[in-house]
Amino acid sequence: QKEVEQNSGPLSVPEGAIASLNCTYSDRGSQSFFWYRQYSGKSPELIMFIYSNGDKEDGRFTAQLNKASQYVSLLIRDSQPSDSATYLCALEKNNDMRFGAGTRLTVKP
Amino acid sequence: DTGVSQNPRHKITKRGQNVTFRCDPISEHNRLYWYRQTLGQGPEFLTYFQNEAQLEKSRLLSDRFSAERPKGSFSTLEIQRTEQGDSAMYLCASENNEQFFGPGTRLTVL
After folding, report:
1. Is the pLDDT of residue B61 over 90?
2. How does residue B44 score in pLDDT terms, banded at 50, 70 and 90?
3. Scanning every residue of chain B, which has its alpha carbon at the shortest distance from the alpha carbon of A50?
């Protein structure tokens, strides 16, 4: 089992819709969880991080963490074509970062 | 621009040659990470430094790879006797509480 699992997609949503990106992980000792956005040919950019169970909101983005189910998700409200990118889930344990392979999101105008 | 710089941005080399990449992190950040990313995959952790100390190395890092951060500021990653399988994007990230990635060095081994 991979340490961080993501559906590779592509996930396609219409402009204005909610995009839901999911990630599961295998190591229960993981401490912090991150969502990065990566445009084609560019390096990853941090969107947000979460370390407590529940929801964390930042603008149009909401991260959800459920440690019992080893599941973390990212919701993007009012999706825009500029949100089209690969979204990487990452976890950290003792300063060791592990990334998933990413989910490719396409927002169609 | 995150404030993390990497040089060169692109490197093309012949198999068997040695290459060295440089990363300049954000100045007040203590932690520096190196990752490798291939097409369709997320970044794979290679190694990280806390100041000048190299605290962890991935099992992916063969003995052809070496990294240094001599003064706790910039870091170098050297690959000796390059192989075609080393072709990838090499990313550096600088961290205080959050990781900020540099633009990467794209290595192509012919």
Report:
1. no
2. very high
3. B98
Please tell me if residue A18 touches chain B, with a CB cutoff of 8 Å. no
Q: What is the pLDDT of residue B72?
A: 86
CA distance B14 to chain A (A): 23
Cβ of A43 and B98 within 8 Å? no
Length of chain B in terms of residues written: 110
Sort strands A71-76 and A19-25 into parallel, antiparallel or unpaired: antiparallel
Find chain A residues with C-beta within 8 A of B44's C-beta: 99
Q: Give the pLDDT score at A1.
A: 66
